[in-house]
């Protein structure tokens, strides 16, 4: 029996995030929804302070949490506060909702590496918060860009935003 892990990431409009992440090796399933806020049973028209987020189920034997985060930082701008492209507001913030202490450690380590790389245009504003309830978005928002290939997205891989691999240092 294969082990799976869950990651919950927010990086602006969930349509584009889902479309790019779903295609990554080791990603078994994705669903879009709302996380990190104050409204129970959040919906598109009533999600309070929740961020638009994506829940990712992945096989850690194929892709690591770190690899998912590196791609996450490549396909959205983690230096813009409460904004991605034309989308402005708390719903479009950059956030990592960790499910374990190990995910928190990896998230903080990855952010430190992004900062230290000097490749991004500013300081990372991505929040690292414990995962709370994830409220699944309505059916019309699931797999949106699969159904509407020319639909809106502000997400794309940025070739210059690839973290360099660290050399292992002797202990």
Overview of the structural elements:
The termini are far apart. Helix 3 links the parallel strand 6 and strand 7. It contains four helices and eight strands, in the order βαββαβββαββα. With 171 residues, it is α+β, with helices and mostly antiparallel strands. The protein is globular and about 45 Å long. The model has no long low-confidence stretch (mean pLDDT 94).
Set down the secondary structure blueprint.
Layout: E1 5-11, H1 14-21, E2 27-35, E3 51-58, H2 65-75, E4 83-84, E5 87-88, E6 94-98, H3 101-117, E7 127-130, E8 135-136, H4 144-147
Parallel strand pairs: 6-7
Antiparallel strand pairs: 1-3, 1-6, 2-3, 2-8, 4-5
Helix pairs in contact: 2-3
Query: Looking across the biggest beta sheet, what order are the strands in?
Result: 7-6-1-3-2-8
Question: In terms of structural class, how would the helical and strand content be classed?
Answer: alpha+beta
Oligomerization category of the chains in this entry: single chain
Average the pLDDT over all residues and give the rounded result. Answer: 94
> Secondary-structure element sequence?
EHEEHEEEHEEH
What would you call the shape? globular
What is the CA–CA distance across the termini?
A: 35 Å
User: How many E strands?
Assistant: 8
Strand content: 15-25%
Brief rundown of the structure:
By secondary structure, the chain is an alpha+beta fold.
Features:
171 residues, alpha+beta, six-stranded mixed sheet, two-stranded antiparallel ribbon, 8 strands
């Amino acid at each position: 029996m294969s082990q799976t892990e869950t990651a919950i990431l927010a990086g602006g409009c969930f349509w584009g995030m889902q479309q790019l992440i779903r295609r990554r090796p080791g990603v078994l399933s994705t669903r879009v929804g709302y996380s990190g806020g104050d409204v129970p049973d959040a919906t598109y028209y009533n999600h309070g302070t929740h961020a638009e987020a994506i829940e990712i189920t992945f096989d850690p034997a194929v892709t690591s949490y770190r690899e998912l985060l590196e791609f996450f930082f490549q396909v959205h701008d983690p230096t813009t506060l409460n904004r991605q492209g034309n989308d402005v507001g708390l719903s479009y913030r950059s956030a990592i909702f960790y499910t374990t202490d190990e995910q928190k450690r990896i998230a903080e380590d990855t952010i430190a590496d992004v900062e230290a790389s000097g490749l991004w245009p500013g300081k990372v504003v991505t929040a690292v918060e414990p995962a709370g309830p994830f409220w699944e978005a309505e059916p019309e928002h699931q797999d949106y860009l699969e159904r509407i290939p020319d639909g809106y997205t502000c997400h794309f891989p940025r070739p210059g935003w690839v973290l360099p691999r660290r050399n292992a240092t002797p202990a």
